[in-house]
Every structure is written in structure tokens, then in C-alpha cells.
Amino acid sequence: MKISIIGSGNVAWHLGKALKQAGHEIVAVYSPTVPNREELARVLAPATAIASLDMRATGAELVVIAVPDAAIASVVAAVQVPAGAIVVHTSGSQPLAVLQGIPGARPGVFYPLQTFSKSKAVDFRAIPMLLEAEDEQTLSGLQQVAKSISDEVYVVDSRKRKQLHLAAVFACNFTNHLLGISYELLQQAALPHTLLHPLIQETIAKALQNHPFQVQTGPAVRHDQNVIEEHLNLLQDQPDYQQVYHLLTHSIQDHSPKK
Hints:
Elements: E1 2-6, H1 10-21, E2 25-30, H2 34-43, E3 48-50, E4 62-65, H3 69-78, E5 86-89, E6 106-112, E7 128-133, H4 136-149, E8 152-155, H5 158-188, H6 197-209, H7 219-222, H8 225-234, H9 239-255
Protein name: Putative short-subunit dehydrogenase-like oxidoreductase (DUF2520 family)
Pfam families: DUF2520, Rossmann-like
Organism: Pontibacter ramchanderi
């Protein structure tokens, strides 16, 4: 399939490479940042870096809008596509309806459920692809493309996808932030963060094999108030972290089967 990509960030970078490796032809790359679009076009050669959102001359059968959520509306307002082209966004939180109004387009959603960084390779075959479309023909086309890059393809409507995105923020973004806090606390004590690695690995392994609430450990689930108070005292000079500790302790206790 002939594909144009709008965007040059982490999702565009990895998705574009996966689509090319699957045998699709990336015909055009647009980004308002000239060096970024030219770099991605080189990676996806023979793609052409273009300076306009007028995609009508590209011959694209699929146009992928891989931009931050806040930028989708402005892209939709300006983009022009070949008649009958499928136009998708890659957002977990934005509804299918946000793409309405693009002349001649068949709207859809093509959401890869993964965290991406340009510097780290990913196995796209293991990444869940969440699809949505207004009609069966468009959905069938998206399923064919998705199955060419992933073994995990699902049809999920906008409401359920938003709930999935919320869950993903807790599982990924908040977890990563908490790890960052733990690294800072070790740094303050001149200890290496690698000390936590076996603990992190075992925690994640257990959580993947069981319901996490059922394998919760630590002072909160034990209602060990003396230890909790000691920890809060250690965080006296970091009130933001102290508040996080408070909230998570109460949440653990509220969800504990042992309470």
C-alpha cells in the first residue's frame, strides 16, 4: 500500500520503519520541521519530504497522522488527501470523530499501544494495534495493514480505547515516574540505582503473572504504621513526594485483600 506519514516524532519514526519493512511504500513524509521530515524521509527512502499538507499528488492510499494530540485538529483542518484515501490518527485518547471533515477521506484509527523512543528498537510484531473505522471496507483495509506489521490486532471503539489509554498511563507513565523518584532518593544517599533492578524485575514479573493487587507487598499492605511514619519523616523536605507516598499508601490499603 502507498502510505504518507504526517509527523516525525517517535511514533512516526517507528511506525514508518515497520510499515516499510512490511513491504509498504512510504511515498511522502510531512513535518513542519524541515530537518526532521528530511531525516525521516531518508530513513524511509524512497519517500519524499514534502513541505505542504496537500497530499493529493502523492497517490497515497493511506495517510497516517502521527502527531501529538493537541496538533491533530490543526492537521485535520489543513490536510488534503487523494479521493478515497484512508486517513488515520495514532492517538489513544482522541475519538475517531476528530477526523471528520477531511474532504474525500475515509477516517480511521491506527493506534499502536507501546511507548516509543527513537533510540530504542521495538518488536512491532508484539505491539497491540487498536483499530477503528466507520465502515467495514475501511476497517478491512486497516486490518490488512496492521496484520502486516503486528500479530496483535484488535478492533476497539473510541470509548474503550480512551479507557485503555487511561490504564496505559497508569501502567507506563506513572510507573516510570515513580521509578524516577526512587532513583532520585538513592542518588541523595549516594547509592547506585542498579540496586533496585532485581526488585523492579521481580515486581513486574509477578504483576504480569498475577493480579497485582493480589501480590502487593510492603509496609502499606501490612499496615506497618511505624515504618510509614518513618518514611514520611524522611520526605519532610520533599512535600510533593510525601503527598505521593500518602496517596499511594491509602490506595494500597483500600485495595488490599488483607485490610
